[in-house]
Amino acid sequence: MQNSFMVRIGTFFFKFRDGLFPLILVALALVAVPPSKVFESEQLEVLKDIVAVALVVAGLAFRGLVIGYVYIKRGGLNKKVYAEDLVTDGIFGICRNPLYVGNMLIYVGVFLMHGDPLVMMLGIGLFAFIYQAIILTEENYLRDKFGAGYEAYCRDVPRWVPRFSLFSKAVDGMSFNFRKVIIKDYSTIATSLIAVILVEFYEEVAEMAALPNTGNLPHIIILGGLLLSVGLVAGAIRIAKKRKWIADPAV
């Protein structure tokens, strides 16, 4: 019963995640204003932000490893879980859900960047629950379609925590394609960077509104420039792909 309930939830979020996830992020970010200090310490705030950015970069890097070795269609078919083949090589040989692991690292980093304890608890907990539900939905589908082969894969490869001891075997004979990472995942890279910048922008603007003489304006201008730069680069890649100025790498 519990698994069936989770599968229904996972089916819903799998179908509507492209529209719902940004709305959930914005709603959670607005629950509280990002604090400008951690325990009244500017040094701890800086350290917290460094860790947050490192987590986002780690999540993007892990996604990059997945896509650079073996790319899979991430949207299913008609927004329903679908797979033509059981992919077990590349980073899928060390973790059954590496893209979701990368996503969770990104979300943890973004919510840590926000810094409000309630927002962090709600955000990380909610997205962990949602991804667990989506994973159970996908597992239910894959188990029905691939049977014993998928069961054996589940026994050998962990669901969440990557088993890096299997890395050499998993990518044996494969080559990493960095160009494919950029072309296939540029939107996720851009969105993640924009999310981090927006959280910091929100914090700086809120602090300046509360304390007008804090000298936050230069920081706000820099953050605005970074937002514009990321948006322009992502837009340029999108246009280049659409007009076929850059070839879409083979899967």
Q: What's the helix and strand layout?
A:
Elements: H1 2-29, H2 42-69, H3 98-114, H4 117-146, H5 148-156, H6 167-170, H7 178-210, H8 217-242
Structural class: mainly alpha
Rg: 20 Å
Please tally the helical runs, counting DSSP H or I stretches of 4 or more residues.
8
Shape: globular
The poorly predicted ranges are none
Binned strand content = under 5%
What distance separates the N and C termini? 38 Å
Helix content estimate: 55-70%
Assembly level: single chain
Number of strands: 0
Give a quick account of the main beta sheet: strands, pairing sense, barrel closure: none
Q: What integer is the average pLDDT?
A: 93
Element string (H = helix, E = strand): HHHHHHHH
